[in-house]
Design a protein that fits this description.
- The protein has helices spanning 18-21, 43-62, 86-96, 108-111, 115-127, 148-177, 203-217, 222-231, 245-253, 298-312, 334-337, 365-370, 383-397, 401-416, 424-446, 452-479, 483-498, 509-515, and strands at residues 30-37, 66-68, 72-74, 102-105, 131-134, 139-140, 191-193, 199-201, 261-263, 266-268, 276-278, 286-288, 338-340, 347-352, 359-364, 381-382, 516-523, 526-531, 536-540.
- With 543 residues, the protein is α/β, with parallel strands linked by helices.
- Among the domains are: 20-165, Resolvase, N-terminal catalytic domain (Rossmann fold, 3-Layer(aba) Sandwich); 185-311, Hect, E3 ligase catalytic domain fold (Alpha-Beta Complex); 424-480.
- The strands form 6 sheets. Strands 1, 2, 3, 4, 5 and 6 form a 6-stranded mixed β-sheet that branches.
- Helix 5 packs antiparallel against helix 6, helix 14 runs antiparallel to helix 17 (483-498) and helix 15 packs antiparallel against helix 16 (452-479).
- The radius of gyration is 36 Å and the shape is elongated.
- Residues 22-27, 41-46, 316-325 and 416-421 have low confidence and may be disordered.
Amino acid sequence: MITQQRVAKNVTIMPPDPALVQRDIRKKRLRVAPYCRVSTDSDEQLNSYEAQIEYYTAKIADNPEWTMVRMYADEGITGTSMKKRKEFLRLIADCKKGKVDLVITKSVTRFARNTLEGLQTVRQLKNLGIGVYFEKENVNTLNMDNEMLLTFFFTQAQAESESLSGNVKWGHRKNFQDGKVYYHYDSFLGYRKGEDGQPVVDEEQAKIVRRIYSQYLMGYSVRKICTGLEGDGIRTARGTSEWHDSTVQGILRNEKYIGDAILQKTYVADLFNHQTKKNMGELPKYYVHDCHPAIIDRVTFQKVQEEIARRAGKRKTSSRAKTELGKYSGKYALSEILICGECGSPYRRQTYMPKGEKIYVWRCLNRMENGKRICKNSPTFREEVLHNAIVAAMNEMFSQQAARDVLRESVATVLASTQPKMSLPAIENRMRELKARQDELVTLVSCGDATFEAVETEFSKIGEEWNDLKLLHTKMELEQPSTSELDQRMEQISSAIDQMDASITKYDDIRTRQLISTIKVVDKETLQIRFKDGTEITQHIEK
């Protein structure tokens, strides 16, 4: 039955163009752009990648109604985000320039695994009059009456990616629990990959690591260490000549240099934007002991961590000051230890040039910034006068062998007083008990005597307690040096004391940092110098 359409007498019907009404990708000569993608670099995927390219090259060449624009192919790139898919982005750009009539691809999963991005891109191309033909699904976006079917396909592709991502995460975390360490040798200064795939110490690079640790303990700031490395033409692990503060800080904090490894320091928070976040406790961490050769001994590493904490703990001491009074300065030793006896602010170095002559002086920072309103009587010292007073105090301190012995005894007492608050054997015994129970649960599930769901809660609790005990065990080992480590540390300090010349003639920043904890300015004629063993000397200042 033919339906008749009634039209008003004053209306003329202009029929549509049949070529456009019956638009068919198989009947019009089109500029075709095939898009291929594989998500990994595995041999199997790469074979698929090559096969896709050969298939579309032959397919378009055999069709006289099609003309290939060019092949767009991304290799080893995930489909969950378009940001890093260079060829895909180039395809969209060419579509916007009017170079493409039709995009063809193997399936929805090759085009996008993100529902939102996939639909937005299809809509964008459709508005430009460009269709996307998905071969597996036999869908041409220009011929769709609605997006329901396409939305289903994209949602299914996204769900597959989410499931695969979950499996990968589970695999990584299982490897973490088993103590499997991943090494990134391109950024791992001091090591190279050995024949067995494990790290081997690269002695030339290891010297750089030891230099960084040594200079930091000598009082160098991180910036000064970077400047020295650049000045000597030393390159980073990635081969660049520029050293950043963050690079040196990372080396100083990296437990891998003592042969250990903390796993799961970071994690990927979102599947689609691939944002990496620092693990602040959202997920468990795993500490692996002695998994590769060490470059730095544990005593030195611990001393560096203590120094990092000490420098970071310095805070601003005056709300009115324009600068951070307590901020660590690695340029001059006195910037950190010379303190005003009146207001408690640190002293800072200033340069004067009266009559063209450069003169260095030290002044109270509060006095410099606020005048006499806050600090009325703090004196200003010429640098050579301060240096001479400090050298005289050191000579007095070390003029007798008895003073050296007192310092040794004081340091030994402090080191020996750090006794464990808990028993390490008790922790180790509890960890063995938990491990045994965990093995029992695994046996029950594998033998069919219990389901995983039935033991999942207990299994998780065991894992959490074991991880907490492991971290506590590690922390105690690092914080409580062993007897041999204490002996080694005492030997280092004793050696430094023996090397102190009983008649020091020249001021030295390194020696000052090693021996003096604070210098308090009492008045314009007196300094109160406190050595690190607790000895205090009141030193007269000679003009």
